[in-house]
Every structure is written in structure tokens, then in C-alpha cells.
Amino acid sequence: MFASVLAGLLLAGCTEGYAQPQAAGAQPAIAGGKTASPPRPTDVDLPSGDPRQSGGVIAAGGADAVYNYGPSVMLDRGQTRMWWCSQYGGAGPAGDDILYAQAPSSDGPFTGPDGGIPAAVFSGAPGQFDGMHTCDPSVLRVGSTYYLYYTGAAGDHALGNSIGLATSADGIHWTRAAGGRPILGPSHDVHRANVYGAGQPSVVYLDGWFYLMFTDTTGRATGDNGAGQFLLRSRDPAFGSGVQALDVGGFVPVASTSAPRARSIVDGFSADLMWVGALAAFVVAHETDGGTTLTFWTADFTEHPYRPVLIPGPWQEGPGLVRRADGHAPLSPADPCDRVPFDVVRATSLGGAAAPTDLRHFGLELRGSRACENPDRVAATFDGVTAPSPERTMDLVRAGARVRVDRRAVAAALAGEVLDRTPAALAALPLATRLRSGAEAVRAPERGAAFVLDGHRWPIPDGGVVDANGSVAHPVTTAQWDGYPPGSSLVG
To answer: Is the pTM of this model over 0.70?
Structure first.
């Protein structure tokens, strides 16, 4: 799988931004901010500093693993968790496996769940589309559910790669979703010499949308070598309905995930995507000659709000951004109102199989974000963060306000990031409501679950959060559900 995509790997800069407005009615409220705002400057040059890198290799497969690449790195409830592509001879079919390890920080050392060698947690399913290879993981946690997006293939035949989805309650034990079928395959707009197909997913959860960035060497808007990064979004994690594709004029509804690939946002392979609340921008991490380039896009992907930034150093295969559980950028522990940390893990050498290995950590910080200059910026910067409240409970920031949560475990499940200290800037946000232990909860067909707080309906992602709060979700009709005045979603 790696060799077929590497054949065209001559990485260039990002494509130009488009000035056309967003498709009518498609713009979501971004991370608690407003849907409309005054024009913002473009191509702002933010100074960088505090470069850092690990002293050596932070992770490698044990046993007979000869390559290690394509990491997905998550800061999750006090741990740094990482999934990546490798291969163990005893893990099942003779092909790529997804390994898992965890560490106290991005500098490792990463070990398996039991403290030993990294564990093979996901492998091919013989007879299925991913019968030989499972690779290129991108992992999110939304509420109590982990989502694994990955490249799968049944063998080494042309255009055989597609993207699959699995779910988990712990990030270790996975169940295939969508009936074990791929959720996205090659569009077959054009056939080129690079026959990789579709894969290398990267997913972010923002304002109720799953944003899926991916490679498709058959896409119409790819370069001659097949390089390009395409973007879909849906409120369905399996992308089975309500799919929108990024086109030259913004996001437009499409019939399925196989719609023509009309616009690429970066000329490259094996890239990673992240939402940066402190900058109110998406960032794409992709490899260029000198290291990992960070390319920034506005929330509607019309313009570049900041100039590209380079994280220098050696590399052999695409980076994994160190992200929160929801795919957002973590806050700077030193100064969240001015600094934004960017860290990546990438393969840095070729191993015995002439494939990438030796995962190492590199990073830097950008300064001058002005992330707390007004309440709207504070709301965007801290959206999805939970921190201690003055009442020995937790305050969760959602939709520009704080929700006071009695149980820390519930706040952690609903949050993208958990802080041990409360930033002073949070005092600028109003206290909207309180989620008490055992609070009333309801569930309706095709609506999901919600807590009822102060008579309003506050949606949540899954029943695991209800159980963790000591509540019981009472069944209601859709009419009864719709009769509750709506509150904000408690998860993005």
C-alpha cells in the first residue's frame, strides 16, 4: 500500500484559496462562534518559536514489525494514545495491521496497554474489502464512542484501496461498522499511473459534523502523480446519508461518497487535518522538502488566514498531528490566549523492508493568536474544554457558554480536552445551566438521546454518557422530543 502511493510522491505547496462564498445554507456555526463575522485578514504571518523534538525513536512495533508509519495521535484523559500502520506476522492475514500504544507524553516511550510491546488491535477480515490490509488510522472519540477510519484493501490489485470504519468503547477492541463494507472508495473520475485508489483518511468532529479528508488518486482534481486531498462532511459518522463535498464554491450536497472529486485542498499524500479553535481555522499537515508544512484554511475553506509554517526535520512518510479526542488542537498549557502548540509524529527513516519506520516527535509553537481578545474568541478557543469550577464540579464550554457538570467522568466524556486548572478567560463566558447527577434524560427514535436541563433539551452522543451520569433515558415520541425547547449540543 505504501509503495503504490509513494510512486507519485513529489510534494508541492497548497492549492490557492477560493474567494467564492459558501454554498447557501451549508455554513455551520463554528465551535460556538457566530455564523457570520466581519472580514478577517488573510495570509497573516504568525511568529513561531520553541522548536522541540524527541531525543530518539518514541515508538516502533515489537516482534517482527519492520515498518511503522501513518500515526494517529490523541490526547485523551491524561494519556497520549497512538495508533499506526505496521505488521505482525502472528496478527492474522499477511498484510498491514494497526498497532496501538500509549505514553505519558508525545515523547514516549509508547508501550502496549499491558506495558509490553505495542498491540495489534485491528487486522484484515478475510473475504471482505479489507481482507489483507488495514492501515492509515484516524481515530476520534465523540462522547463514549471511539471511531476508527482506516484504509483497507483485499490485496495488491490496482485501485483496491477504500476507506472503512470501526467503532469501540475503549479504543482497543474494535467492531466494524457499516456492515463491514467500505464507507468510501475511489471515484474513478480519471485513471492515472498511480493506482493507489482511495485511502489515508483524516477525520475531525466539529459542530456536529464529521469532516473526512482523504487521498483519491482517481479524483478529477488530483495532480498528474495522483496527489491531492479531498474533503467530505456529514453528520453521520459512516457517511451513509447527508453527505456534502467541498467544491470550488463551498460545501454542496452529493448523492454519495463516490461523487466526483472537484477540488483538492493540498497537493500531497498522507496528510492530517485538525481544527484550531484559537485561530478559528483548519490546518492541514503535509510533508514538503524540509519537513512538515502546516497549511491553514478558514472554516469554509475559502481563504488562507495564515501563512504556511514549517516544522523542520527528517521524514519518510506523512505526519500525525497530536490532537484532542475530537480532532481539535490542544491548548497551550503556558499561555492559551497567545500561543498555539503544533506537534507531529512521523516516520523518519527507511527500515529493512524499504518502508518507513522510526516514529519520532517534532513540534513548535505559534505566537500572537489573540485567542482571548473578546468573548467570541474565548468561546471558539475553549469550546469543548472542561475545567474545575469554583464549586468543586466541572465547567464544560459549549456554544459560547459554560455548563456546570457534577461528575468529572461525565464532563470528561463530553469534552475534547480536560484541564486541571481553570484559565481566567473562562470567566468571560456565561453559566448556562447545570448537569446534576441523575438528571432527567430522554431518548426518541431517529433523534438520539438528550439531557433535560431547565426544561430544555441538550443532546448527547450516546447512552454511555447517560449511564455515567447515573441517569435513565426515558423513551419519548419524536413529537414529545421536538416539544422541548432546544438547548445546545453537549458534544460539539
So the answer is: yes
